[in-house]
Amino acid sequence: MERGRGALGPALELVHTGRAPTRAVLTTELGVTRATAGAVAAELEALGLIQVDPRPVAAGSQGRPSHRLSIAPRGPVVLAAQIHADGYRAALVGLGGRMVATAPGCMDVPADPAHIIDAVVEAGAALLRESGRRCLGAGLAVPSAVAEPEGTALNPLHLSWPVGAPVRELFDEALAKSGVLGPDASPVPGVTGNDVNLAALAEHRHGAGRGARHLLCVATGHRGVGGALVLDGRLHSGSSGLALEVGHLTVNPAGLPCHCGSRGCLDVETDPLAFLTAAGRAPGPAVSLLQQARDLLRSEYDDPSVRAAAELIVDRLGLGLAGLVNILNPDRILLGGLHRELLEADPERLRAVVADRSLWGRSGGVPILPCTLDFNSLIGAAEAAWQPVLDDPLALLG
Amino acid sequence: MERGRGALGPALELVHTGRAPTRAVLTTELGVTRATAGAVAAELEALGLIQVDPRPVAAGSQGRPSHRLSIAPRGPVVLAAQIHADGYRAALVGLGGRMVATAPGCMDVPADPAHIIDAVVEAGAALLRESGRRCLGAGLAVPSAVAEPEGTALNPLHLSWPVGAPVRELFDEALAKSGVLGPDASPVPGVTGNDVNLAALAEHRHGAGRGARHLLCVATGHRGVGGALVLDGRLHSGSSGLALEVGHLTVNPAGLPCHCGSRGCLDVETDPLAFLTAAGRAPGPAVSLLQQARDLLRSEYDDPSVRAAAELIVDRLGLGLAGLVNILNPDRILLGGLHRELLEADPERLRAVVADRSLWGRSGGVPILPCTLDFNSLIGAAEAAWQPVLDDPLALLG
DNA sequence: TGACTTTGTGCCGACGCTAAACAAAATACG
DNA sequence: CGTATTTTGTTTAGCGTCGGCACAAAGTCA
Predict the structure, then answer these.
(1) How far, in whole angstroms, is CA A63 from its chain's centroid?
(2) Which residues touch strand D (CB under 7 A)?
(3) Do B328 and A327 touch (CB under 8 A)?
(4) Per-residue confidence band for B361, with pLDDT thresholds at 50, 70 and 90
(5) How far apart are the C-alpha atoms of A124 and A144, rounded to whole Å?
(6) CA gap A81, A102 in Å, rounded
(7) CA distances (Å), origin A280, targets A205, A283, A317, B291, B382
(8) pLDDT tier at A363 (50, 70, 90 boundaries)?
(9) Of A47, A139, B300, B329, which cross-links A191 as Cys (Cβ 3.0–4.6 Å)?
(10) What is the mean pLDDT of residues B186-212?
(11) pLDDT value of residue A76
């Protein structure tokens, strides 16, 4: 009796990522009998996580039509929070990566990490009270490497935070303070991570990275370049959370000095500022560097100097990606931020450079694709927050 | 009834790696009850894989003394084979990484991959007939990247083999031909891999890498530099077997041209030839480059020019390792071949360079250690061959 | 020698699954 | 239009694997 406990987590993950639209495919995907799959679905429905729609799914093939499995429309959510250079965002995210509620982005940012984390958690908590939903976890994305197991921010460059700010601790405290409580009045467990890492997780679950075994993501936002690696569905953040700090690969030996002590690093040679400089444009203070670079690329790509600058940056980026391909041998690469724009402006050039400069580029070539969720760190933070539920639904809900 | 089937594989792995000397610690390591651990041990003993020594282990603490668990002395073996620049080696390896029998290394190497693979397998098969042991698998290490899933050698640089030689196919054919047969007269499954990768696996199971979560290995033998990564006990060879081709990291922007098209690659800047050249010695034809470099380092380290050459190579190697640390964030690094000798000659210098040039070197610093099995690819090949048995002992023996 | 501590084993029950038979709901075909 | 076929869902029985528990065994400690 009580069939289907061990398969509960994998089953929920299949529904969550949209790979199990019906109980029939759930059966085959899990490799269990129909009886077990049915029991699993019933259990997940009883937990309020999924919904079995009795209306048969549009048939078209022979046999009895299967009922549709979907995420429960008013099921539990997680609190997702993101802090970036210009402010913060908060949202509630349900299973399936669906945004349930979003707080208006706030732009006046207190410099103190404790205050801004309190503020973003409070914004999320307000959404939560408003919605009346149950909250099963919380995730925070910050633009910095987060050391494991300490949970401290090691390079919050865009935030004027102190190096080593204890972000995980602050997040947990803020969650406890603002009454984001679990069923037994205990604060929900907080997950804190680097924004690019978390965004890569989101792309892997719900975006262009779906189905990749070894997914490499590289993105540039304002300054610097971030990387992330998802191996067999799990974020690889190294033994102390510092993996994929790809910004200091050398891509231009005679290039600009970098704060790391070397020169010509990917960080300073392919970010929006490097592009603007290469195009001979002085960056203005009005909008973000990414926005200025994006505008320039979109509106003046005909201008030879802009085009030449784009090609120069693409060549450098390709060199860096080739180095990463030689080391990591991913089966898919996603680009975000300005790198994505550059890829879309001239996909063939980047692919050719990577194939030419990586050792085994000829033998197939890695697909290089633009991200589809715009490197949404909010959904990524939610994804990380959902992970404990996906791993063992009964532990938090039984 | 028949307790302890699911835990059979993990239990065997614990005994295999020497982490379960008694049933008592097996109980705690597996996280099961004493009853289950006892049943697991009995099952493994019935399969002829391990031995329960009734003589109590030397006590010293209170309570009933535990019986000793050990590898069955005349249990099954795997066939391990290695092909290198100067010839080939074959051996039988039991559980626990113990060499059971070794064929004398052969030095007259036919250029044709099919012939040499036939020869090394036949040497192993002869050992097997001699020993009368049961053979449960076979592994082959080759000095080349092996593409997945094709099983072809992509850069057999030291062997004058054709690029793309189908080594896995040839190995499987040779196994079938030479009568290395399983219980049901089917040929044992062959595993083929890169020698540095397999050696890293051996170091992780039985050498200096034991217990590391993210183990990075770097070694240089004759020409070029090889790398390998073991993540959570599993070899990471990328999506197509080509990961950790670390030889083409740039460590000297103004350095020597490399066949990859760039210049100053780790491959050409830190191998034995680079060291000999930097020391102003012309390489002789008598012994291998590695041997010449090793001799020079050991006997003339007082000579200022030799010392300066060593420091130069160490600095370049440190730069490459720092780059890898930034990307992979391992919790241990092992060095082999000449790199190991250089580390042992001046451990502090290399560690200082890596700490200085990696982003988070200050925050702890990665332990950099010499390998202890001398990067034994034979044991590594055996380790890979044992893996299916460790994963599910009953599948092959039940 | 007797108390205590730790290890090994036999028995039972709970849990989680498969297998198999049956029921239900569509399409395919005469 | 009705029956056969195909596929899906559900019920029941049964079995394998593990935890819990009681008891036995084998040492140390006082």
Answers:
(1) 40
(2) A 1, 22-24, 27, 34-35, 37-39, 42, 61-67; B 1-7, 31-36, 39, 56, 59, 61-65
(3) yes
(4) low
(5) 21
(6) 10
(7) 39, 9, 19, 54, 59
(8) low
(9) A139
(10) 94
(11) 96
Across A85-94, A259-268, B243-252, least confident range: A259-268
CB pairs below 8 Å between A and B: how many? 116
pLDDT 10s digits, B318-331: 999 999 999 999 99
Measured distance CA(B216)–CA(B332) in Å, rounded: 6
pLDDT tens-digit series, residues B74-117: 999 999 999 998 889 999 999 999 999 999 877 777 779 999 99
- Structure letter (DSSP) for residue A248: G
Average pLDDT, chain B: 93
- Give the pLDDT score at A333: 98
Write the CB contacts of A157 (distance below 8 Å, at least 6 apart in sequence).
Answer: A143, A144, A223, A224
Q: Residue with CA nearest C23 C1'?
A: A64
- The verdict on a CB contact (< 8 Å) between B239 and A330 is yes
Residue type present at position B37: A
B327: nearest CB among A243, A359, A360: A243
Give B 112-171 residues with CB within 8 A of chain A.
Answer: 145, 147, 154-155
Alpha-carbon span A264 to B244, nearest angstrom: 23
* Cβ-contact B150, A360 below 8 angstroms: no
Asked if B285 has any chain A CB less than 8 Å from its own CB, the reply is no
**Are B234 and B193 within 8 A, CB to CB?**
no
Contact indicator for B113, B120 with CB cutoff of 8 Å: no
What are B281's two structure tokens?
């010695």
Q: For residue A106, name the pLDDT band (cuts at 50, 70, 90).
A: confident
Say how far apart CA B121 and CA B306 lie, in whole Å.
Answer: 42
Query: What residue has token string 């400089």?
Result: A277
Q: Give me the mean pLDDT over the A295-308 stretch.
A: 96
Q: What's the one-letter identity of residue B379? A: I
Rounded Cα–Cα distance for residues B218 and A327 (Å): 12
Domains recognised in chain A with CATH numbers: 8-71 (1.10.10.10), 77-197+377-397 (3.30.420.40), 211-370 (3.30.420.40)
> Which strand (E) or helix (H) includes residue A153?
strand A152-153
Q: What's the pLDDT at B59?
A: 65
Whole-angstrom distance, CA of residue A220 vs CA of residue A196? 9
Residues 222-261 of B with CB under 8 A from A: 227, 231, 236-246, 248-250, 253-254, 260-261
| Inter-CA distances, B175 with A21, B77, B114, B140, B192, Å | 45, 15, 12, 11, 12
Contacts of A213 in chain B (CB under 8 A): 239
Strands across the sheet with A77-84, in order? A99-102, A87-94, A77-84, A135-142, A190-194
CA A314/CA A339 separation, integer angstroms: 8
Please answer whether residues B121 and B175 qualify as being in contact, where contact means their C-beta atoms are separated by less than 8 angstroms. yes
Nearest to A189 by CA among A201, A172, A173, A174: A172
Closest residue to C9 by CA to C1' distance? Answer: B35
Q: Assess A331–B contact: CB distance below 8 Å, yes or no.
A: yes
Closest nucleotide to A66's CA, by C1' atom?
A: D8
Query: Which tokens is A287 given?
Result: 């909008």
Nearest nucleotide, C1' to the C-alpha of B23? C7
